[in-house]
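OP here, attaching both records as promised.
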Amino acid sequence: MFDSSYKSTIGVDFEMECFEILGIPYNLQIWDTAGQERFKSIAQSYYRNSHVVVVVFDLSKSETLSNTRKWFLDAMHTCGDMLPYVFLVGTKKDLLGGFAYKNAELSAVNVAKSINAEYWPVSSKNGENIDSLFARIAVLTFDDCVKNELLRPREIYIGSNMISGKANRSDSKKNSKCTKC
């Protein structure tokens, strides 16, 4: 939900978003790090082993797009061995129209290509593309967890529902960075 009284992030903010994918509850841990230089050392500790990097800029302020490469490089430098999915997100899409939007989008698409990112224009105010963006992130990371066997279903049915194997939840959680709701 859009909150007109929202204040910019100071330092780091944390949110948890729950999804259900293929009937399995799945959490995204979202760490919002401030882009200001004075918070750079704090933010870098949250980049380590990230599965996704979302670089956000304000579509209505072209100077913010020029900062995205630096923020991207800062995040990638401290991500460790992970090769995270990268998203370039332009906010406040609702403030632009016509030529101004086309021009901002063209610049953003070029930056996204240069950092190998998916580009997503969004509007928090009217909700445009917000749910789709987070659903995309959730599905990609869920798929990776399944491929890497980090997310195990509680019950596995073989042949019929009369034979089932129950995964040991504590073992699964110890080795997993993917969590269940």
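Record two, same layout:
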Amino acid sequence: MALPFVVVLPLLIVVAAGVYYIYNEVIRFMSKSLVRNKVVVITDAVSGVGTECAHLFHKGGARLILGGTNWDKLESLYDSLTSDADPRETFAPKLVILDFSDMDSMEDVVSEVLECYGCVDVLICNSSMKLKAPIQSVSLEMDRNIMDVNYFGPSALAKGVLPTMISRRSGHILLVNSIQGRLAVPFRSSYAASKHAAQAFFDCLRAEVEEYGIVVSTISHTFIDASHHPLAAGEPAPKTNALAAFIASQLTHGVRPSVLANEILQTVNRKRKEVVLAHPIPRVALCLRSFCPPFLFAVLAAGVKDSVLTEQM
């Protein structure tokens, strides 16, 4: 006697969920084993995403070189990584002061990084500087600072480690960029400009070094959501245009640091060249930017007028 559909369907769902879970666990285990003994540089290891990456790659047996602007935070991260680690399975990380806002130090930074192990297998450029302000209020000095951190710094470091990668005919350079490297949003002029520049640079680099067996990847994500900030009790909700409010809520649906770190690990292991880590609405906006820009421009302008997108992005 055949089982009724109402019984079969839940069973199929449970089986599918189990298979999916096992698949993810196998992929996660394989991902960790693939980075074992690899020399991995994380440019901003003390950020939320950088710290998550450091833990993932350290557990996977990578030889980490952790960069950051604050030595105390780097030492604290070092302690957290090594306190419970098995020295037979992991390597003690190397620490390097790395400040992209100080471009004069980049030559010394490159030398220090290469002195750690003599080469770099994976370079993860995740440093970033953000700014939300009207264009007319942003100084040229601030524009330059953002370009240094978001564009000139990563490109200079990539150029610095490139000769060793070319001579070994292997390597992986990964840029943790932003969806705003593809889609400019109001009141993010300097930030979006720097992310567009970085995206273009690494796209060019990818084509130029492919013949040497070097992989170049970019991850374009929405904003990093490290915490939630609900309205305070009794605080009235702002009056907004319904359409603009809906789009704003979708565009501001961020990605958690742990999720982004896992995506970085998967990208390194699977050698993906390009990843867009975003929800459907930002993806639709990217399509509109290419195929129907007047409509997107109108929506963004409506968001500025109603102070919805400007407040929430």
